[in-house]
From TrEMBL:
It comes from the Eukaryota. It is found in: Endomembrane system. GO terms for molecular function: monoatomic cation transmembrane transporter activity. It holds the Pfam family ZT_dimer. This is Metal tolerance protein 10. It is a multi-pass membrane protein. One of its GO terms (cellular component) is endomembrane system. PANTHER family: METAL TOLERANCE PROTEIN 9 (PTHR43840:SF2), MITOCHONDRIAL METAL TRANSPORTER 1-RELATED (PTHR43840). The gene is MTP10_4. It comes from Quercus suber. Belongs to the cation diffusion facilitator (CDF) transporter (TC 2.A.4) family. SLC30A subfamily. Keywords: Ion transport, Membrane, Transmembrane, Transmembrane helix, Transport. The chain crosses the membrane at residues 31-49, 69-88. InterPro entries: Cation_efflux_CTD, Cation_efflux_CTD_sf, Cation_efflux_TM, Cation_efflux_TMD_sf, CDF_Transporter.
Amino acid sequence: MRNPNQYRYPIGKNRMQPVTQPERDPQKEKWMIGIMVCVTIVKFMLMVYCRRFKNEIIRAYAQDHFFDVITNSIGLAAAVLAIRYYWWIDPTGAVIIALYTMNIWTKTVIENVWALIGRTAPPEFLAKLTYLTWNHHEDIKHIDTVRAYTFGSNYFVEVDIVLRQDMLLNKAHNIGESLQVKLERLPEIERAFVHIDFEYSHRPEHNIAV
């Protein structure tokens, strides 16, 4: 700003002021702090409220509000410190917010990619499904397959059970249907599919492309 150049900057360099040095106005500073604090408090209250729900969409709002609380707090602290101490604290705070934003949303993208590509459920969840299936009914003689994979925020589950060859159709149907209902009551499961067979030495029913 101290070295004007009418050829490169025909209207002067006054617009560089907010880039290089925060404006020192006590009244504006009070308004800025008041507004930012109020917004941050409201965002924090909304975050706490949204976290009370189990719905994934509402919980996503909670995550968004938490992100705003963090960025607003860092931005406010950086602005106040820059006004009172050193001007470079403000852009440093902006860099920190940018890095935090990239880190958070990169993790979110990766998490959603895993959720959409049919990744298998963790071993402890598969063990839980196996336990529930085995103890569902005394006529279940064998468990051929227990498979769970991501489908959005929840899992699709496939279970293959073996019943007696001479069992009546209505009884076999009731066992399979009641098992399906039991599995779909778990909050992590979107849909459950129960396949009933009378032996387990055959090849898999579905070919999986490599």
